[in-house]
């Protein structure tokens, strides 16, 4: 018998499991709350040894603001990329950019890379083995240094504030 | 009540059309662009948003049908938005690994794409020696 | 109006899938083909959801969810195979 160390080792994961269960059943009846609650407690306890240490969300309010900012940027990104694709003369200015990372934890780097892929004109292509450089491919970019500064100001700094400081 | 139905129908129709146009543009990008790295942009961003729009329309439609919120499709939307960047990253990693050619206009010369001298000598056929 | 919009968007998605199929056929390299297949998965999810709206029925939700999951996992597995020559080390 494995002795559970704590009843709720990862509260965020538990909440997520409960929400996903309710969405999957598409019902808020009492039975589904109970069954989902049991799963939300049992699964984190059993799987706790598999998980790496998760970074703590230090400023939840900033995370919400970041979420809405990224949502807005996704829509802008799509309009811009559509413009490049539909341009009949094919006037794209593609570039490979090496982006120097300041973040250190795996989870935050993953989040930054995903954000970069979903937002204007850039796809994260490769993370070097040393974990300090992210290779980005940009579809249509004028000034490379400007783009690096933009990503740093708009995405990396808020992420650093939310998770690492 | 009639007015609400008409308005909602308009909203659903708008999301359907917008989503399908986005998805079409994404696939067009996949067909038209010159090299792999540029082709990656269309599907990873635009198609994902297109399908997101369709799923929003589905949420609105079934909520209207049941006269209550029906958020099931939100699961697929979230799942797609989390997984699309990951698969795009994996694809471009494997493309870099295979050293796929890029468009000549591309600026920047990452070391992943440069021909490695030692490597090419190592891989050249040397008699009938077996691979280690 | 909804009927018309449904028809139009189903046709547009069908065209998108045909474009993807074209890229699968001619794609000069393996990653191109995988990318086109991945896009086809995403578009077919949308088609299935459209079909569900058309019938006014929720049965097809599970099918769409399963396609989304299998599509992601298979894309990552094939990429892993290209990267390492091996799926599970």
Structure report:
The complex is a heterotrimer of chains A (165), B (132) and C (89). Chain A has 165 residues and is mostly helical. Chain A has 2 domains: 40 residues, no CATH class; 105 residues, no CATH class. Chain A is built from 5 helices and 3 strands; from the N terminus they run H-H-H-E-H-E-E-H. In chain A, helix 1 packs across helix 2 and helix 4 packs across helix 5. Chain A is globular and about 60 Å long. Chain B has a single domain, classed as Orthogonal Bundle (Helix Hairpins). Chain B has 132 residues and is mostly helical. In chain B, 70% of the residues lie in helices and 0% in strands. In chain C, 85% of the residues lie in helices and 0% in strands. Chain C contains 3 helices and no strands. In chain C, helix 1 packs antiparallel against helix 2 and helix 2 runs antiparallel to helix 3. Chains in contact: A-B, B-C. At the B-C interface, helix 1, helix 3 and helix 4 of B face helix 1, helix 2 and helix 3 of C.
Keywords:
heterotrimer, A: 165 residues, mainly alpha, 2 domains, 3-stranded antiparallel beta sheet, 3 strands, 57% helix, globular, B: 132 residues, Helix Hairpins, 5 helices, 70% helix, 0% strand, elongated, disordered C terminus
Helix content of chain A: 55-70%
Alpha-beta classification of chain C: mainly alpha
Greatest interface and its participating residue counts: B-C, 50 and 48 residues
Biggest sheet details of chain A: 3 strands, antiparallel
Q: List the strand order in the largest sheet of chain A.
A: 1-3-2
For the record, the CATH class of chain C is: Mainly Alpha
Concise summary:
The complex is a heterotrimer of chains A (165), B (132) and C (89). With 165 residues, chain A is mainly alpha-helical. In chain A, 57% of the residues lie in helices and 11% in strands.
List the helices and strands and how they pair.
The complex is a heterotrimer of chains A (165), B (132) and C (89).
Chain A lengths: L10 H15 L4 H18 L12 H27 L8 E6 L5 H13 L3 E6 L5 E6 L5 H21 L1
Antiparallel strand pairs in A: 1-3, 2-3
Chain B lengths: L1 H31 L3 H4 L1 H26 L6 H25 L19 H7 L9
Helix pairs in contact in B: 1-3, 3-4
Chain C lengths: L1 H25 L3 H26 L4 H25 L5
């Amino acid at each position: 018998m494995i002795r559970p160390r704590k009843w709720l080792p990862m509260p965020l994961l538990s909440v997520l499991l409960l929400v996903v269960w309710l969405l999957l059943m598409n019902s808020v009846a009492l039975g589904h709350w109970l069954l989902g609650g049991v799963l939300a407690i049992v699964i984190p306890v059993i799987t706790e040894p598999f998980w790496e240490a998760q970074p703590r969300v230090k400023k939840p309010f900033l995370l919400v603001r970041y979420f809405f900012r990224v949502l807005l940027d996704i829509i802008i990104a799509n309009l811009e990329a559509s413009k490049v694709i539909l341009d009949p003369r094919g006037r794209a200015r593609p570039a490979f950019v090496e982006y120097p990372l300041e973040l250190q934890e795996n989870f935050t780097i993953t989040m930054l890379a995903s954000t970069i892929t979903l937002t204007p004109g850039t796809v994260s292509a490769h993370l070097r083995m040393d974990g300090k450089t992210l290779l980005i491919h940009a579809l249509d970019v004028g000034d490379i240094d400007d783009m690096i500064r933009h990503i740093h100001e708009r995405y990396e700094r808020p992420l650093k504030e939310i998770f690492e400081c | 009540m009639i007015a609400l139905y008409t308005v909602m129908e308009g909203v659903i129709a708008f999301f359907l059309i917008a989503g399908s146009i986005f998805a079409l543009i994404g696939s067009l990008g996949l067909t038209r662009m010159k090299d792999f790295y540029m082709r990656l942009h269309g599907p990873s961003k635009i198609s994902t948003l297109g399908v997101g729009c369709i799923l929003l329309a589905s949420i609105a439609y079934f909520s209207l049908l049941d006269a209550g919120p029906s958020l099931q499709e939100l699961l697929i939307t979230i799942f797609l938005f989390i997984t699309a960047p990951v698969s795009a990253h994996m694809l471009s990693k494997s493309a870099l690994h295979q050293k796929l050619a890029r468009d000549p206009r591309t600026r920047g010369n990452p070391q992943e794409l440069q021909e490695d001298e030692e490597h090419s000598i190592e891989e050249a056929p040397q008699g009938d020696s077996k691979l280690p | 109006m909804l009927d018309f919009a449904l028809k139009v968007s189903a046709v547009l998605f069908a065209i998108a899938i045909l474009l993807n199929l074209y890229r699968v056929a001619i794609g000069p390299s393996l990653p191109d083909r995988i990318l086109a297949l991945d896009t086809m998965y995403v578009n077919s999810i949308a088609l299935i959801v459209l079909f569900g709206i058309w019938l006014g029925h929720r049965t097809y939700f599970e099918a769409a969810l399963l396609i989304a999951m299998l599509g992601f996992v298979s894309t990552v597995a094939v990429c892993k195979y290209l990267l390492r020559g091996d799926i599970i080390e």
